[in-house]
Design a protein that fits this description.
By secondary structure, this protein is an alpha+beta fold. The chain is 34% helix and 25% strand. The chain folds into 2 domains: 172 residues, Ribosomal Protein S5, domain 2 (2-Layer Sandwich), CATH 3.30.230; 120 residues, GHMP kinase, C-terminal domain (Alpha-Beta Plaits). Strands 1, 2, 3, 4, 5, 6, 7 and 8 form an 8-stranded mixed beta sheet that branches. A hairpin with a 6-residue loop joins strand 7 and strand 8. It is globular and about 60 Å long.
C-alpha cells in the first residue's frame, strides 16, 4: 500500500524573530512544498530516500525499526542524526508509530531548491506528523524548536496571521486584497542562513522586546489592510527600522541596494534567502546585480 502526503513551504512577511515571543506574524504558504511517499515493504526496516527538485537523490539512510527500536544502520551525519531525532520524537508522541510487522520505503520529494529556505525541515515535520497522526506543532517543539509559523503555513492554503502567544497557537487565514500585488516580488539573495543559529542569536539579545512586539503587531495589521503601494512601502520601511535597531544589523537595502527605487524587506533570518521587493523595476534591476531569481508575489503564493 502506498500513501502520499504533501505540505506547503513558507515565507514570513512580518514579525520575523519576534514571532518567537508571541508577536503576530503575517506569513504565506507557498506553491512550493514537499511530498512524502510511504510504501510498505516486507523487511522490518525504514529505507529513506530524499529527492531534490530535479529528482536527484540528496540523502539516503536505512533505519532498523524492529522490536520497537529506532537505530540508524547507515552512515552517521548531521542530516541522518536529525532525521533520527524527528522519528524518535514522533514515536514518543505515538508509541504505535512504526510498530507494524512490516517496514517502509520512504521517498521525499522537494519541488524547490533546498537552498531557498522555504521549509525543507518544516514540510518534512508536517508530513511525518500527518503520517504518524501526531500534532505537528508538538513534534516541531520536541525536535527543531521554533515559533511554529512554518508548520501553520505547511497546513494552510491561504495567507495566515499567526501567533504562538496562546496554546495552542492562533492561526487565522487572512485575505490579502492588495490592488498592487503585481508590484511585489520575491528576490533570492543566494545567501543561505542557518535558522537555528539566527534563533539562538536573537534569544541571546539582552533587550526588552515588548515594545518592538507591540509596534510590529500594529504594523502587521496595518500592512494587511494597505490600500496603496506607497502606504505599503512606508510600513515595510518602518518594520525594517524596528528590526534593524533590535538586532543591531543593517537593513538589506542599505547594505546591497541603496540605489533601488522601491522598498526592500528582509524575510526570515536576516542576511540571506529571500527578500520582498516592491515595484516592477525589480524585474530588470536585480538580475543586473547578479540576483537572477525574481519571483512575482502571485507565483509564490499558494
Amino acid at each position: 500500500m502506498k500513501k502520499t502526503f504533501y505540505s506547503n513551504g513558507k515565507l514570513i512577511l512580518t514579525a520575523e524573530y519576534l514571532v518567537l515571543d508571541g508577536a503576530k506574524a503575517l506569513a504565506i504558504p507557498t506553491k512550493y512544498g514537499q511530498y512524502l511517499e510511504v510504501e510498505d515493504i516486507s523487511e522490518k526496516v525504514l529505507l529513506w530516500k530524499s529527492l531534490d527538485e530535479h529528482d536527484m537523490v540528496w540523502f539516503e539512510a536505512i533505519f532498523n525499526i524492529s522490536n520497537d527500536t529506532l537505530e540508524l544502520l547507515t552512515e552517521k551525519n548531521g542530516i541522518s542524526e536529525t532525521l533520527l531525532l524527528i522519528l524518535q520524537e514522533t514515536k514518543k508522541l505515538n508509541f504505535n508509530f512504526l510498530g507494524e510487522t512490516h517496514g517502509y520505503q520512504i521517498t521525499t520529494k522537494l519541488n524547490f531548491s533546498r537552498n531557498w529556505g522555504l521549509g525543507t525541515s518544516s514540510t518534512l515535520i508536517s508530513n511525518i506528523a500527518t503520517w504518524a497522526k501526531v500534532n505537528a506543532f508538538s513534534l516541531l517543539k520536541n525536535s527543531f524548536g521554533g515559533s511554529g509559523y512554518d508548520i501553520a503555513c505547511a497546513l494552510h492554503h491561504k495567507p495566515i496571521l499567526y501567533s504562538n502567544k496562546e496554546h495552542p497557537p492562533i492561526t487565522d487565514e487572512v485575505p490579502l486584497d492588495w490592488s498592487f500585488k503585481e508590484e511585489l516580488f520575491f528576490v533570492y539573495l543566494n545567501k543561505k542562513q542557518d535558522s537555528k543559529q539566527a534563533i539562538n542569536n536573537y534569544k541571546n539579545l539582552n533587550t526588552d522586546k515588548k515594545e518592538a512586539i507591540a509596534k510590529v503587531n500594529i504594523l502587521t495589521n496595518a500592512l494587511i489592510f494597505s490600500k496603496t503601494l506607497s502606504e505599503f512601502e512606508n510600513l515595510l520601511q518602518a518594520h525594517e527600522e524596528i528590526l534593524s535597531n533590535l538586532l543591531h544589523l543593517p537593513m538589506v537595502k542599505q547594505t546591497y541596494f541603496k540605489d533601488y527605487s522601491g522598498s526592500i524587506k528582509s524575510l526570515g533570518a536576516w542576511g540571506g534567502d529571500f527578500v520582498l521587493a516592491t515595484r516592477k523595476d525589480a524585474i530588470e534591476y536585480f538580475p543586473t546585480k547578479g540576483y537572477t531569481i525574481v519571483i512575482p508575489f502571485s507565483t509564490m503564493l499558494k
